[in-house]
Amino acid sequence: MSIKSKLVNSYQYFIGEGLGQKAYISCWYKGAFQGYIDFYEAGNVPTPGFNSNGSFHLAYPIERLDSILTTLREESPVYIQIANFGTLISCRVATSDEPVGEQEGFQKQQR
Q1: DSSP 3-state assignment of 110?
Q2: Which of 59, 61, 110, 111 has the most neighbouring CB atoms within 10 Å?
Q3: Using one digit for the tens of pLDDT, what is the confidence trace for 34-82?
Q4: Which CB contacts under 8 angstroms, 24+ apart, belong to 32-37?
């Protein structure tokens, strides 16, 4: 197994129509482009991978959009990852170790 990872500290969110993807998120770290998280209709999700500039291309069904946006909004640090399990290529949006019960999202909503 091989996992490539990029740290993300800012993002831009786009909703499109007439394109292959229904929405996408461009991910950045200190102003450097890290990759896209693209969202497609179920059944039309391509294999994730690497762009020609070394950035990542993550691909998810559109149903995953809300949960991934919530992670980007409420967690830190956040990583985008491409994992290679032999012939299977997978993508991930991940956090580092998190304390149990910290309720980051809950605390932000209470402010």
Answers
A1: helix
A2: 59
A3: 999 999 998 899 999 999 999 999 999 999 999 999 999 999 899 999 9
A4: 34/6, 34/7, 34/8, 34/80, 35/6, 35/80, 37/68, 37/80, 37/91, 37/93
22 vs 27: CA distance, rounded Å: 17
Collapsed DSSP state (helix, strand, coil) of residue 38: strand
CA–CA separation, 107 and 38 (whole Å): 29
Query: What is the reported pTM?
Result: 0.82
Pull the structure tokens for residue 10: 């800012």
Helix extents (H) in 1-111: 65-74, 104-110
